[in-house]
Design a protein that fits this description.
The protein is of the alpha+beta class. 16% of the residues lie in helices and 11% in strands. The protein is built from three helices and four strands.
Length: 113
């Protein structure tokens, strides 16, 4: 099982999940956050704290969200197609480039609070 960030995070990027991760395996992208598929220890802390309910184990995902397992993995692919191992996220790190398939999802307009 792998934890995956799904569509609910797109253009929301609350980021509280990054503070709960004990191994810093959640990385910031341009439009959403991504969980590194091999750095994650599957503790579930991020899933329990996500305010938009965007994080699921891959075997618990709804069919329409299943593409996000691939999107999360693709956020870490290098030019050769291999998953790179950045070694833990820091707020000082630059944003990761979103995988091309994320462009198919409409942009969300921020809601007034």
């Amino acid at each position: 099982m792998t934890l995956v960030i799904q569509s609910q995070c797109i253009d929301v990027k609350d980021g509280i999940c990054t503070t709960s991760c004990p191994v810093d395996c959640i990385y910031e992208g341009e439009r959403m956050y991504y969980i590194h598929p091999t750095e994650c220890i599957e503790c579930g802390m991020c899933e329990s704290i996500c305010p938009v309910d965007a994080i699921r184990y891959d075997d618990e995902m709804e069919p329409e969200e299943a593409v996000f397992a691939q999107i999360n993995a693709d956020a870490f692919r290098d030019e050769s197609g291999e998953i790179d191992e950045p070694g833990g996220w820091s707020k000082k790190d630059p944003q990761r480039k979103d995988p091309p398939q994320l462009a198919a999802f409409a942009r969300r307009v921020p809601q007034d609070t």
